[in-house]
Amino acid sequence: MQGWQQCFKKILAVMVAGLMLGVFTSTSASADDDNLQKIKDQGVLRVALSPDYPPFEFQVNHGQGEEDVGLDIDIIKKIAKDLGVKLEIENMSFSSVLVAVETGKADIAIGGINPTPERKQSVDFSNIYYNGGQAFLVTKAKYKQLKSAKQLNGHTIGTQTGTLQYNLAKQRYTKSKLVGMDKGSDLVLALKTNKIEAMGVEKPVAEAYVQNDPDLVMFQSDYDLSSDETGTAIAAPKGSTSLIAAMNQSIDQIKKEHLISKYMKDAAKDMKTNTVDTSMLHYWNYFFKGFQYTLLISILAVMGGVILGVVLALMKMSHFKILSWPAISYIEIVRGTPMMVQVLLVYFGLGVVVNLPALTAGIIAVTLNSAAYISEIIRGGILSVDKGQREASQSLGLNHKDAMRFVILPQAFKNIWPALGNEFIAIIKESSIVSIIGVTDLVYELNVVRADTYRGVAPIIVVMVVYFLMTFALTRGLNYLERKMKYE
């Protein structure tokens, strides 16, 4: 037992050292002021953003497919054009956009980002390109009681997690209950279902919701802030002096030519386009695309999980500690940490060494997670096979490898089929966590549709039905195979 503990500590030490080395490598790379030249050499400007924040960035449905539009999209198109490079948009959760810049997954990040002192410790910022102010949203029913920001203290306030609005509300309304959520669409749904009483948000976003949702009312905040604190800017890696200077030139030109007002008018037109037809049938291609990605991730994760699970199970059962200890350590670490953390580690952590696409990173993370659980299921199945089967195999002259391949494992899989089926179903549902890094699965498309249509419940119901049909069909198929195996 003591030897196992020492081994486990060594493994953890190696992991921590590896992560520290990756962070150091990332930090050292970002300290060199060659980011602008790298972008020009590659001919591509990679931008991280979360397309669920109208009018800054959102997606418009043209019937044939979605397109990223909004104030921020027009600004980065202008910057890319001025730099003479192509634009590549990396869609992901808002909580991940700054991490993407820090780890080199993106060159810059945009998305109504306020350059707070805390954020400036991790990334550098361009000049302020827009300042719309702060506001609150309430329902028309609640507006009878809450008509100004001065009355909010003591009421439940919702804001997006990790934003300036969250910190401001925490400091200003000390008697209020503060609720943080990752998505603005989730906050609006919470507002309309009375889970929160007011929603703190930037004024342009509040205006967009009020214009497209007759049940909502907006009023100004009472925060006493400077323009630098409430304005929005573009984030870049630390030390990117030349890149920041180039972006500032484009921003100065945008201001000089008064393009912001034009961009906002274009965003307003696109928002109206989305609200002409908000039926879920109009967005069928969104859900179908999400279904395809969810199915692809699940199938590949199951296949990879079974193969790796068999290897881990055999390693753990080995009498050689050099094989059993790594397997035990891997299984315990994976089962002892949330899948969300594992997805972020694979995408951003490994991204320091290898620039993995979001889909590839998502498949790898789900596969590695599933393998740990499947390995224990397989190990239990192997142990459930009667010892007499092993003895019979030996009497027939089969070596250990052939006995395991032709006798033990086939019987083990027959015994564990129900448990294995449950794991397959769990993978389909749990794979939704990959949406946090921008994989366009069902949950990702759900949030996009909710942001575009300003409808909170209908998209959720559609996705629930799709998930149910997927798992129901799989359950029926697994039950059929289980009955068939009983007769063989």
Automatic annotation (TrEMBL):
Residues in the signal sequence: 1-31
Membrane-spanning segments: 293-315, 344-366, 456-475
Classification via Gene3D superfamilies: MetI-like, Periplasmic binding protein-like II
UniProt enzyme class: lyase
Protein location: Cell membrane
Listed PROSITE patterns: ABC_TM1 (PS50928), SBP_BACTERIAL_3 (PS01039)
Topology in membrane: Multi-pass membrane protein
GO terms assigned for molecular function: lyase activity
Pfam families: BPD_transp_1, SBP_bac_3
Keywords linked to the UniProt accession: Amino-acid transport, Cell membrane, Lyase, Membrane, Signal, Transmembrane, Transmembrane helix, Transport
InterPro entries given in the database record: AA_ABC_transptr_permease_3TM, ArtM/GltK/GlnP/TcyL/YhdX-like, MetI-like, MetI-like_sf, SBP_3_CS, Solute-binding_3/MltF_N
UniProt EC number: 4.2.2.-
Domain of life: Bacteria
Major place of residence: membrane
Annotated ranges, domain ABC transmembrane type-1: 291-475
Database matches in PANTHER family: GLUTAMINE TRANSPORT SYSTEM PERMEASE PROTEIN GLNP, MEMBRANE COMPONENT OF AMINO ACID ABC TRANSPORTER
Stated family: Belongs to the bacterial solute-binding protein 3 family.
Classification via NCBIfam families: HEQRo_perm_3TM
Protein name, entry field: Membrane-bound lytic murein transglycosylase F
Organism: Convivina praedatoris
